[in-house]
Batch of 3 targets.
Target 1
Amino acid sequence: MSKVHEGKSFALLRTVVDTTIAAILVVIVFQMMLFITDRISHGRQYGANEKGFEHVDFINFYMAGKIAASSERKRIYDAELEQQVYNEIIAPAKTYEHCFYHYPPYVFLIAEPFTLLNLDHAFEAFDFGTAAAGLAGLLLLMRGNKDLGMYDYVLILVAALGIFPSLDNLRDGQFAWAFAALFAFYFWAFVKKRDALAGLCLGMMAIKPHYLLFLMVGALIGRRYKLIVVALSVVLALCLSSAISFGPDSVLSYPALLRKMESSDSSVLLVPERMICLRGPLSLFISREACLAIGIVTFLFGLLLVAYYWFLAQVRKSIPLEWAMALTIMVLLIASPHTLVYDATVIVVAAALTLKSARLTRMFESGPASFKIWNFLLLMYPILSWVIMIFVPKIVAALLDPRFQSVFAVNGSSFGLTSFPCYLLLHIALLVSGSIYVLSGAAKVDLQSPLSNKAQAN
């Protein structure tokens, strides 16, 4: 058989393998969407029939909007009022556990327009709207990566929806896809020097203030003062709107309220043992208050590390801006004081910025070992994320003494808590391999993005 014929046969086999993987991911995503659309209505029905009501985070968001639209809006953090409105929303089901809403007061304002729809339609609009915005942001970034083609675009977008954190986010109605959109559009505008848009995106990250701080580091290092002024103006506008709507105390007392909730052992929905940041595994062995203190320290160290990456990208110009952003995302997931599984959805932005191909059959074709490890972990992330949640607890249960079950049990799974440290280890492996790659100087040669290079040249 000639070498040409062998090459064509291998190319055909590679296409079959990649297409099969893409088809599997499409099926997963389709099934995921069917599951999500019925989640809330089924939960209310089961609760009414005394089969147990399953909480969905979006109900809290919807509850926040209902309170913001009511005459009781001055009491947004009142426990009794939140419990009352929550039960009114989920009727005929009922819960006696207080599902405290710990987001900043301006999120209540953001939630208010969604109450114009009924709960089910609001849930679907939020999920599909944020996911669509996130996918649009990814596509915008990938168009600036000259190594990716149309097939890669489709595969990455489908894989992004199919990772377990994406499912976890969509089935609970969380903000991770909204943040993926904000990260993507922020970076694009940052590179294009469209400071008004970048500042708007950065300011809206105040929904999770630690995200804003991580992403603001790059603007500070680059002396993008107009961008920073716009971002701070957005935050100020959000705070003033909240103070006018809910009273000044809703803004001024929020930090103390959040700290009390994060360190309390009685918070129903706060389970730090399920976090995938450094704080998570520590919560298995020490108090929540001590873990929160450690989480704040790791957060500060994380800011310093992120500053170093952006210094290399903007001052020394020794690494592409794409890699500074991608590694910032990895540090954010690891060093934040509050990171849950669905938050890892934003890793898709790092993939869109740094991958040279979405084909598993090409993951080892070029670059040093550190880059190949980075590629392998990102391309395998859709599979690894499901393996971690489904199979790790079963494997650990087979290996560990049953007496440890009480330590690692959660949500009816005997060793369910063992999944979450695996996410942390996976993200650390990505951070280490990516850091070794950029610090070796290979990234400057291997990734020549028109988007990044034009900005760095200026």
Target 2
Amino acid sequence: MTHSQHHKPKHCLRQLTEQESLVIHADFDPDEMGCLLVIRKFCQSFAPQTTDAWTHGFFTAESIWGEVNGPMIAHRLMHVLQAMRASRLSVFSFSTPDCPVCSQVLTEHERRLITAIRFVRQGRPEQAALQLLLLCEGNPTEVVMERLQDLSTAFTFARELACPGDLAQAAYQ
């Protein structure tokens, strides 16, 4: 399940909670920022007001990582989300990417997931496992970890085969 912190941009009165921070303070690299945006698009399609935002997630991934790598990374991110959603009992809180105010807010759940992605990509599975344990509320996380490993492999593959014109290519150099 997912829960969007969604307000109309014109009337957005979003205030940070204790567990939230601003995205700019997260020190995410370009790939992690891309993951956050794609995850948010995917989560919009899981929210009660179901949309086709998942398609925008794939288009966003393609614009970030290119025609070859974008869909592969988006596919792996969807698998991570589905595994995480199957493990959690409560809703996954995320900030809507469509509101200029809300999109600047990083929820605790988003932070833990992106941090787990970072740790797996850095070869630090023990630290990733701790983030997943907290994110998944003590429920089994083995499948989520496997999906994170698959995502990490996709980034390695993308780095090795960076296509000219990929916006994230500079991050791989």
Target 3
Amino acid sequence: MLQIDLRRRTRIEAHGVGGGGVKAEDSSPLEQLAVALKAREPIELPGLVLPNDPASCLWLNLHHRERKDRITHLILDQFEEIFTLGAEWPGADAEVREALTIFVRGAIPPAIETLLDEGEAFLKHFHLDVPPLHVLLTRLSQLGAKTNDFLARMAREGA
């Protein structure tokens, strides 16, 4: 289980079960999630050139067959801060929606879709049918309407 705090000044902190934490600052929310989830650690595979964008890194690390420490639950604490981040970082809510669709619905980023053409070489190292990550969003009750609007927009967009 991993808990990630969404806080002001575009800082995401990740805390594993054993305590300790990882901080990623001064980058987009999607990049911060990739760093916090250790998805930026390189996956070296002979004969395959893997994309390095944050969404692809999240997908690759969640679906990598050889990854032994796959998280099964994610807590996005202080989720209401995504609306504060959105004011400071335009597009932050879209990036968080993209990450959530990768986690919960198994969305495949465009750069990964092109790798699927590699067939067996790619599928030897990555599962397509990984169980969804269970995500718990915590928020202040005063911002319930904004959170509900955010989730409704995800549903409308098919995310």
